[in-house]
User: Fold these one by one.
Assistant:
Number 1:
Amino acid sequence: MTLFEPFPLGPTTLTNRLVMAPMTRNRAAADGTATPLMAQYYAQRATAGLIIAEAATPSLTGRTYPNTAGIHTDAQEAAWRTVTSAVAAPMFLQLQHGGRVGHPTTSGRTPLAPSPIPLPDPIHTPAGREPAVTPREMTTADIRTTIDDFAAAATRARSAGFAGVEVHSANGYLLHQFLAPNTNQRTDAYGSDRSRFVLEVLDAVSDAIGPDRVGLRISPGNTVNGILDDETLYPHLVREAARRNPAYLHIALAVPESPLFAQLRAAWPGTLIANPLLPQGRIPADGGRHAAERLLAAGADLIALGRPFLANPDLVNRLQTAAPITQPQDRYLMYVGGPRGYTDYPTHQ
Ligand SMILES: Cc1cc2nc3c(=O)[nH]c(=O)nc-3n(C[C@H](O)[C@H](O)[C@H](O)COP(=O)(O)O)c2cc1C
């Protein structure tokens, strides 16, 4: 089994096992519509077996940062269609509600979260970095509306030409805030069973577009955005999610020798995408190939890479031929607009 063999993912056949991880790059227009530059960026990276496009919000309230994409208006759906039609690889769209990771200066709305506990850090807004605001605790009606928004966004993503969607339950955004005890202090059924909201979102999205077109991304133990996880919840979540037969489970920052990775692999009979934990800063000189192969050996089916794809549009060919790897430029370039540090990474000659 190698990285460069085809793999069937639901109704789609991937030409290889390398997946471009979802990466927010803040190149959408102010109204959350995808831009021609984004189409060019993804088209450049279409040798990936699968591209998981950046987080797109299913509602204005769920918007995280300036110039992030949305998938809740007709204009956003139409703009995404121009992206998917320009890209040769199958694409899933990641659906992300920010929860407390949002700001009225960005969205015009008070953020919603499981409990009224603010993000500990300031947050990037169109006016620069601002202190986080205390989110409003979601009512049962807010929960219902948000679940419906996810389902509607999934339907729009399919109409826009995506092969499926990835439900973002990682990295400290709304779904992860429901999973973690320090951000979910509810006393209702969504607090006594912290997996419940994620599973209800999964059910609604699966009902909308079919479970074989839905993935779930988790990042157990990731402390980003002020999350303190209870890792013992994940085997339960994964077993329950597996009963719904989604297209895949995607584990971010996966460590092949960790007991939790083995436990989750055992709890998940379906397709597993693993995103290896690579060093921060410089990426490995082999582009992550060694880390990818270790995860395949530990039972992953597909390997997601983020920064290696960001800086190497032809990453698959480079890994296959052991060609030199370009390092991502200054981190700052990841979050600003325009082609610099975005579409100007060279193809290996
Ligand atoms: C610029 C940038 C933006 C990211 N945006 C997202 C995102 O929108 N959704 C998500 O789940 N992860 C996001 N991530 C995390 C990546 O998907 C990935 O898990 C992380 O970069 C580690 O993989 P790597 O070492 O191969 O880059 C982002 C990472 C980077 C570097």
Number 2:
Amino acid sequence: MERYARHLVLREIGGPGQQRLKAARVLLVGAGGLGCVAAPLLAAAGVGVVGLVDPDVVSLSNLQRQTLYRTEDVGRLKVDCARERLGDLNPHVQVEAHPIALTSETADGIVAGYDLVLDGTDDFATRFAVNAAAYGAGIALVSGAIERWTGQVGVFAAGLTRDQPPSQRQACYRCLTPEIPPDAETCARVGVVGALAGVVGAMMALEVVKLIAGAGEPLVGRLLIYDALSAETRTVRVPPDTACPVCGGVSAS
Ligand SMILES: [Zn+2]
């Protein structure tokens, strides 16, 4: 009661919302800049089970923004370090570490059993695999991305609405990005300002709390774009695409 006191007094969360957080199983793909921010916020919020997927070890260049890790962690598996830190933060949370790469072959097996997926990875092949698995599992995807000074976050609820009439379906990530953009860049090449990971990772965690507690209006069908250099945000609609290779053409009857 004391740990979650600031949630319990919120009308939009309260006791019922906190119980829903405790019952939730949330999978976080990528324990990098975004995952390092979202994971401790979800653990602190009392999400019952937090799954972490990342095959990588901590490197020195990660520490500029991946603040869950310490200098002495360099060379250790990220999911092992993260599990220790989250356990210290909130021993009531069960952390499930998956030190493997999520690919189109492994995605369905990893995602199975979770209620919600966050994607904080930085390559399109992985994002596409996470999106297809979330859609297949009938769950929502909270997606975040950062590059240079720009970040974006969106909630793709196609999995939740796949059995609805076409007029009530929501977009998936592939409706927004049908193919890998030819100009796709990585943060390793073009850079990223560290604090931007804090902004976008925290927004991802916040959207998860809203979705689970049923609070407010999550970014379903919308993409929020944050331009850090000008300190401005804009939100664009993301409609479902009937030609989408993942969610289009389903139940075409
Ligand atoms: Zn789609």
Number 3:
Amino acid sequence: MKLALIGFGQAGGKIVDEFIEYDRATDGGFVTGTVAVNSASVDLRGLEHVPEDRRVLIGQSRVKGHGVGADNELGAEIAEADVGEIQSTLDEIPVHEIDAFLVVAGMGGGTGSGGAPVLAKHLKRLYTAPVFGLGVLPGTDEGGIYTLNAARSFRTFVREVDNLLVFDNDSWRQTGESVGGGYDRINEEIVERFGMLFAAGEVGAGDAVGESVVDSSEIINTLSGGGVSTVGYATESVETQKGGLLSRFLGGGDDVDEMAATNRITSLVRKATLGRLTLPCDASSAERALVVTGGPPSHLNRKGIERGRSWLEEETGSMEVRGGDFPDPSGEEVEATVLLSGVSEVPRIKQLQQVAIEAQETTEEIQRRSQDELADLVDTGEELETLF
Ligand SMILES: Nc1nc2c(ncn2[C@@H]2O[C@H](COP(=O)(O)OP(=O)(O)OP(=O)(O)O)[C@@H](O)[C@H]2O)c(=O)[nH]1
Ligand SMILES: [Mg+2]
């Protein structure tokens, strides 16, 4: 699946950077163009892989390259004002070749939180290719303002994209980890999950063709219809014989036990669905789903995929469950990625909204009180006059 990736804000830019690295390392072939947008010049300079001429600094007249300091209304305003500059950079990438746009942002800050939905709206108006979002929810320990930002951005972003893929930092943080080091690890997890999905739709000419290779249209159809998506992933190492002399002598190829391979795939699909999702939710609330099984072709069999697929159909109660292969002749693991689309039972979102509403009320109350207190402090009972 050929994507134009646009990273908005610091988290967005770093994740797009990581996607580029993954795409190169795995020969994924899904990164067709990249752009990073930020209001902080230092964050743009910190990127490693997004080409320098694809980095757009917005809001210079307002914030002078210093970021918006978690003010996402300001983030939305400067994105709106400078959308033309973002567009000029997009004009430099081959957008006519892509299958979809992916706008990536952390939803708790200011620039990405406010700007990503503005850009998504702009892209949808201009292009026929679908516009997907990848939104990152803040950790609960980041505090009220980040939660409030994320809750408001979430509502807006979902409305403006064809589907919002969500990753929840809170479910993925590890105790005792430094914030920076933590993000590097988390970004790798993000890219591994979503990257396999996008790469699956991009099996190039010359690659081994599996029994039922996933096509980018299957990913797009699973996502389109709107709403929120989450991804699950599970993997298991397998013994592979790399076609040595002895194995050729004995009849060639891998000697794979069909029954074991079938069972492995079925259990990986279950683990992926019931294990830790990028956004934890009740899988049965999904409207559509896609199962992708990857690995050495000899370990991917139709029966396993079919069983995994029908198990997921039962689990989600959905009639729209697609499935396919992502053969990797040099792979040494069998992997299953499960995309659950249109999920509605998501406790984390409800909790986020609840905390956001409380934070909003508290902020308003504090503002009211501090205005009264200041008036009290300055008041001299008409004994003193101001200068003018
Ligand atoms: N997964 C992940 N999340 C991140 C990373 N950096 C920041 N975040 C999350 O994203 C949220 C937004 O942070 P930033 O992306 O730095 O914010 P910004 O869009 O640059 O906006 P401002 O700095 O306020 O102008 C934070 O609250 C974190 O939850 C990262 O590298 N990886
Ligand atoms: Mg920033």
